[in-house]
Amino acid sequence: MPLVERSRECEAAKAIVGRRVARPLDRVLSFSLLRLRGCYRHAVCGCFRSRSSALAKFAIHSVRRLARRRLQRVLPLVCVALSACERTPLNYLTASGPASRSILQLTWGLTAVSSAVVVIITGLLLWAIFRPRADGGSVASVSRTHAGMPWIYIGVGISTIVLFICSAWSLVTLAHVGSPSTKPALSIEVIGHQWWWELHYRGDPIDRNFSTANEIHIPVGQPVQVRLSTRDVIHSFWVPQLNGKTDTIPGQTNVTWLQADTPGAYYGQCTEYCGLQHAHMGLVVVAEPQEKFAAWWAQQLSAAAPPGGPAAAGQDLFMQHCSTCHSVRGTLAGGGLGPDLSHVAGRMRVPSGVLPNTRENLSHWVAHPQSIKPGALMPNPVLKDDELKLVIAYVETLK
Q1: Is the pLDDT of residue 226 over 90?
Q2: Are 249 and 192 in contact (CB under 8 A)?
Q3: What are phi and psi of 308, to 5 degrees?
Q4: Which residue of 114, 141, 273, 346 has the smallest Cβ count within 10 Å?
Q5: Own/partner pairs, 55-62, CB within 8 angstroms, 24+ separation
Q6: What is the arithmetic mean of pLDDT over 357-383?
Q7: What is the pTM (predicted TM-score) of this model?
Q8: Which residues share a beta bridge with 238?
Q9: What is the pLDDT of residue 128?
Q10: What's the confidence (pLDDT) of residue 38?
Q11: Three-state DSSP string of the chain
């Protein structure tokens, strides 16, 4: 959705939520603060002396004004969450695999327990503040008795039981997401770079191995082992709808796994700050039926077809300007500094999940990479407009 339309939708949602939330909240504040007007006011000495309507009115006005300011700050966040939650690529509130489903259940469970604790404590605190007093509000002497000890025992006992259950639930979830229940169908090596993902598929026999970048394909309903490492700094691999986060640490290989129960595209992101373009280090996991996955694998093994027409001239320019850093199977381009561009035209997004893979975006990325990802290792190539069109014509044949 365009940014302007989303902004208008957010403003409309803000107005609706504001009318439905602000008015009831104002009634609650009015009722509560009117109760305060009937109470004795606390003086500097710490004692209740007299009913001060002016002080009560000032307190009511101040608290109402503060509440409205806080509400105005929260409402934009609420409307964005309500209007965009279904369109958010990194939506961790929906699960599409067994690992993410266990994590989501634990998330909702711990959220419910935490919310219940807040509600209970808030209710007891409000009851203690506003409950009627038989002595008319006078300050009673404080004496130490043991009449309240049973309540302390009950509270500590219930808290211990709840914490034990939550801890056990967390440990069971960690064990479940640590490894799949069945043997993985295949293994993928994922290497983090600043700021893209290098992928190596391991086949049997070895001549079925190939490399790609930024877009992972997996078969539906089968666990896939993912071996994570890095060539520079610490990154973190996260596909929220399929599994939790796993760091990539220099000199170490960490192992996680992915499994999708339904076909579709699932977006991931590096979640460990790794430099200037950390926010633009994304990836896509495409889950597809076994037949389509096998066809995709066979296509990845195939070499690039010889181009014709303008694309042939574009290939020559590509070899002059791009082959030092990038590789294309079946050609002389064998660079290893940048992503493998074999079949790059068939990927959903470029570069590294930033933009949809269209001719316009691809042209802009090739011509001005530093304007899209400042600090990336890819320099701005020296290409004329007609040369750029020829290079793009060649790249679009790499499907």
Answers
A1: yes
A2: no
A3: -135, 165
A4: 141
A5: 59/33, 60/29, 60/30, 60/33, 60/34, 60/36
A6: 88
A7: 0.72
A8: 269
A9: 84
A10: 41
A11: CCHHHHHHHHHHHHHHHHHHHHHHHHHHHHHHHHHHHCCCCECCCCCECCCCHHHHHHHHHHHHHHHHHHHHHHHHHHHHHHHHCCCCCCCCCCCCCHHHHHHHHHHHHHHHHHHHHHHHHHHHHHHHHHCCCCCCCCCCCCCCCCCCHHHHHHHHHHHHHHHHHHHHHHHHHHHHHHCCCCCCCEEEEEEEECCEEEEEEECCCHHHCEEEECEEEEECCCCEEEEEEECCCCEEEECCCCCCCEEECCCCCEEEEECCCCCEEEEEEECCCCCCCHHHCEEEEEEECHHHHHHHHHHHHCCCCCCCCHHHHHHHHHHHHCCCCCECCCCCCECCCCCCCCCHHHCCEECCCCEECCHHHHHHHHHCHHHHCCCCCCCCCCCCHHHHHHHHHHHCCCC
**Chain center to CA of 96:** 15
Q: Using one digit for the tens of pLDDT, what is the confidence trace for 252-307?
A: 999 999 999 999 999 999 999 999 999 999 999 999 999 999 999 999 998 878 88
* In contact, 250 and 233? CB cutoff 8 Å: yes
Residue type, 47: C
How far is residue 235's CA from residue 257's CA, in Å, rounded to a whole number? Answer: 17
What are the tens digits of pLDDT across the range 40-59?
Answer: 333 333 333 334 455 555 55
Tokens 């605190």 locate to 125
Q: Are strands 235-238 and 246-248 parallel, antiparallel or unpaired?
A: antiparallel
Is the per-residue pLDDT at 381 higher than 60?
yes
Nearest by Cα to 235 from 250, 222, 221: 250
